[in-house]
Amino acid sequence: AQDSCSHQCGELLGTCSCQVTCQSLGTCCPDYDEFCLQISPYSGSLMGGKDFLLENTSLNTSVLMCRFKQEIITSGYVDKDGKAHCISPLLYETGFIPFEVSTDDGLTFPYSGTWLSVHHSKVSDGEKCTLVNETKWQYYGTSNIDGNLTLTWTQWSLAASHINIEVWGYQETGDSYSENWFAEWIYLYTLARETPNTGTFSFIPEPAKANYNTWDFGILRITPSTYSDGQSNIPSVWSSAHALAWHLGEDFRNDPTAWATAKCIEWDRKEEKLPNFMEEIIDCPCTLAQARADTGRFHTDYGCNVEEGSVCTYHPGAVHCVRAIQASPQYAAGQQCCYDSTGTQILTHDSTGGSTPDRGHDWGSPPFMKPPRIPGFSHWLYDVISFYYCCLWSDNCHFYMKNRHSSDCRTYRPPRAASAFGDPHFLTFDGLNFTFKGQGEYTLVESDLTSLRVQGRTQQAYFPNGTEAQVTGLSAVAMQENNSDVIEVRYSEDSNLEVLLNQKVISFSEQSWMDLEGLFLHSTADQNITVMFSSGSGVEIRGNGGFLTLTVLLPEKFMNHTQGLFGVMNGDTEDEYTFKNKTTMPVHASPQQLFEFGANWAVENGTSLFTYDTEILLNNFFYGEKHNVSFLPVFFPHEDPADPLMKEMVSLCDTDPFCRFDVLTTRSLQVGNFTRLSHQNHKQLVENLEPVISCGWLGHPTNGRKDGTNYLMGSAIHFICNQGYELIGSEERICQVTGTWSGYTPNC
After folding, report:
1. pLDDT score at 143
2. What are the φ and ψ backbone dihedral angles of 246, each rounded to 5 degrees?
3. 589: which of 309, 343, 655, 703 is 20 to 30 A away, CA to CA?
């Protein structure tokens, strides 16, 4: 009898497969599609309430139960066309969440799939209801702000003729940084009942009743009015999470400044009792160039983005901010770094536009679930609502800046970069470059520090006329660190760029950012893929004319902990060509000898991270040799003056040896041009990551002022005393190569 995929998705069975690769291999059990669920849409906000369709599955039942993480049950239903649906639940985490479906009232759950839970501010605006003029909602009751508030939503997103609008509040209770610290969203009251589902609602807000008006951070939920108040995990449309100024009590409306000042002072006192997270967060990069190059550890803060016109509401004077991707190890705190138009870091000591670190990392941090790791909302509670108290609703920003002052960049150390591109040219962490055109699967870098492994597959290149060239290029890269998810980026057989997560092709059609196990994954609109591992190491991959271009960024802690084709990262090029058995080959080895070095780093089936999901891949790379010994590439392309391509090649490549090599061996100017650009990008990246010396912030003397806010090597700061005061000490101090300021502290 044939095996069944009931309860078995992801398993390889005796007679057939329930693994995701079975589809392209044609080895699936007959009922694979029925039990291993494909869903649409595949993602939604962690707040839940989103209706998604189970594709391929026809269930002859009216009662469906959907169970997430084996514990949270939501009700599903079968629509009039016989299609099955589930409703996503409220979750306190982001990432892929396993779910199962039961058709026998919860006795068995044979069907399974995964749902992608997304940070609430990362889901598209169309999925939320809109607070029209959000600023007005969040400042309502402060000077001169009153009148109507309007809420709009897409009316077909809820299948109901009448809706209710509810107010929910968020709180974290218990002892800070202990096991009994809990996060919860709580239904407070219903703002409007049995309202026609027209897609718009306007009202004049009343101060909330006494037991609710202490809630100052929350959210609105719209639900079909057939459900009871505050019922959990039902079809819902949520607003953005926001400061609830509009519902605060009479005491706030009568004197918002006094109310906010009292809250600010209370927050400041609480802060003093909490542990100091500032000592363990990563220092900021010194320059904007470093911040944008260190993609393994820092990512654009979408609230201030130079690529979107630098609309920096909270950071006046800044053109771009980045956030540290990983939360700090013990307190799960976040770092933010902002830069001005000269590329210099802005500090809060000098300007309110300076960057402010966060007690709660905005993106949350694994394992989520408990404060201060809840995505978005912990951050609101510790770092945003307090900003409203101290800086926006009252004039007490000095309290906020005292607890959230910028870190400078004195301890920042840039990562090192290695790249591979074209018919593969390798630029190592220590700056050596070589060409290795083996055909097979090879270890590009591995590290004993975090069990990081990055592997590359090379396949034969083609001439423009379709025949095979005697060179290869990177066609797939696979990677993992410790026990993280495995990510593979590859060219599919029809030359599209594909990203695989644990052997399954994933789509970025709904989300460009994913929080995964041990890593974050990001794809830009033009398919630049970035993988950010929890160690701070980063891998960037982009498709370039049929070959992949790869860059690996490793923080300084990986020094003396790497091996593979990218060499031993230690600042010394002499030992770059180190074999698996730790013997080395001289730096001036011939291309033929380098071919031997490359072949030594072929992976084995037992350690391969690649997915072999087609007959071609199985035959060529799984059953075949990991390094094709019979493939001998061109080692020295001949430059023939009579070659018609020579003239165009020289004007395109100039003196770039990689570009010239690739034009001659592939007979393609396009391939040569991609190689030239990749080489240029790598050189620019290495330049942007050059270490910069900082001497740290200097204040102005009492009864005086200072001129200058750049504290990097070579910068000068001038000091001037107010009228009637005389300067003792240095009028000018210069940041020296030693990282110290020249001269003496000035006094007036």
Report:
1. 84
2. -65, -20
3. 655
The pLDDT value given to residue 636:
80
Please check whether residue 384 is in contact with residue 250, taking contact to mean a CB–CB distance below 8 angstroms.
Answer: no
The DSSP secondary structure of 167-222, one letter per residue, reads EEEEEEEESTTSTTEEEEEEEEEEEEEEEE-SSEEEE-PPPPPTTTTT--EEEEEE
Both tokens assigned to 469: 């060239």
- CA nearest neighbour of 256 among 381, 399, 150, 396: 396
Q: What angle do CA 124, 129, 131 make, to 5 degrees?
A: 110
Torsion of CA 508, 514, 516, 520, to 10 degrees: 110
Domain with CATH 2.10.70.10 in the chain: 693-747
- Spell out where 335-415 has E strands: 336-339
**In terms of CATH, what superfamily is 416-614+621-626?**
Mog1/PsbP, alpha/beta/alpha sandwich (3.40.1000.10)
Please give the single-letter amino acid code of residue 630.
Answer: S
Rounded to whole angstroms, the Cα distance separating 36 from 57 reads 9
Rounded to the nearest 5 degrees, what angle is found at the Cα of 731, between the Cα atoms of 726 and 734? 160
How many C-beta atoms lie closer than 10 Å to residue 117's C-beta?
A: 27
3-state secondary structure of 400: helix
- Residue 493 CA to residue 244 CA, distance in Å, equals 53
User: Residue 630: its pLDDT value, please?
Assistant: 87
**Which residues make Cβ contacts (< 8 Å) with residue 266, sequence separation at least 6?**
none
CB of 130 closer than 8 Å to CB of 151:
yes
For residue 10, give the amino acid letter. G
Give, rounded to a whole angstrom, the gap between the first and last alpha carbons of the chain: 93
One-letter amino acid at 564 equals G
CA distance 582 to 540: 28
Domain 693-747 class in CATH? mainly beta
3-class secondary-structure state, position 296 = coil
Q: Are 732 and 718 in contact (CB under 8 A)?
A: yes
What pLDDT score was predicted for residue 1?
56
Which CATH class name applies to 37-118?
A: mainly beta
Task: Output DSSP code: residue 25.
Answer: H
Please write the tens of the pLDDT for every residue from 283-299: 999 999 999 999 999 99
- Positive or negative torsion for Cα 615, 621, 625, 627: positive
Q: Which of 72-90 are b and which e, b meaning 16 or more Cβ less than 10 Å from the residue's Cβ?
A: bebebbbeeeeebbbbbbb
Comma-separated ranges of CATH 3.40.1000.10 domains in the chain? 416-614+621-626
CB 652 within 8 A of CB 464: no
Altogether, the residues listed in the chain come to a count of: 748
Residues of the chain with CATH 2.60.40.10: 37-118
Which residues of the chain fall below pLDDT 70?
A: 1
Q: What's phi and psi for 649, nearest 5 deg?
A: -60, -45
Residue 63 has what pLDDT? 82
Contacts of residue 350, Cβ cutoff 8 Å, sequence gap at least 6: 697, 709
Write down the residue that tokens 């409703």 correspond to.
Answer: 87
Q: Position of tokens 């004007």? A: 651
Containing 648, the helix (H) or strand (E) segment is helix 645-653
pLDDT tens profile 143-172: 888 999 999 999 999 999 999 999 999 999
Tell me the Cα Rg of the chain: 29
